[in-house]
Amino acid sequence: MRKLPKPLPLLALLPALLFSGSALFAHHGNSAYDETARVSIQGTVTEFIWVNPHSQIYLDVKDSSGKVVNWGVETNSPGLLGRAGWTRRSLKAGDRITIIVCPAKNGQPVAYAGSGDPGTALCFYADMG
Q: What is the pTM for the complete model shown?
């Protein structure tokens, strides 16, 4: 006669399988951004957040009418930025920068900089003056 497996160990594995599987689907794509467009924005850094999964740069940018708009720019992970020579102190509030971004498709002042692929440069320039 064949012995049936005990249900308790199998039930204990169920939450682990459910939660580990959800991690595969947790990362979002860049579909909100127009990756075919490259826009240069210039402004003053208000905050630089060094955090996984994507660091964030917030900066005040003057729009075409002269109104100051706070932009949020999603960048690469701290790991990728660190391998490219960045640190959590690379940008600070008050720094004037120009950054090349892929803008949001919906026209909001949010953008993505960097493709996320290893070895890809995050293009920004510190304004000297």
A: 0.70
* Domain CATH code at residue 95: 2.40.50.730
Cβ pair 106, 32 in contact under 8 A: yes
Give the chain's mean pLDDT. 77
Q: In whole angstroms, give the CA distance from residue 97 to residue 59.
A: 9
In this structure, the strands spanning 96-103 and 124-126 are antiparallel
Which domain range does residue 79 map to?
39-126
Under 8 Å between Cβ of 38 and 66: no
Q: Where are the beta strands (DSSP E) in the chain?
A: 39-49, 56-62, 68-74, 96-103, 110-112, 124-126
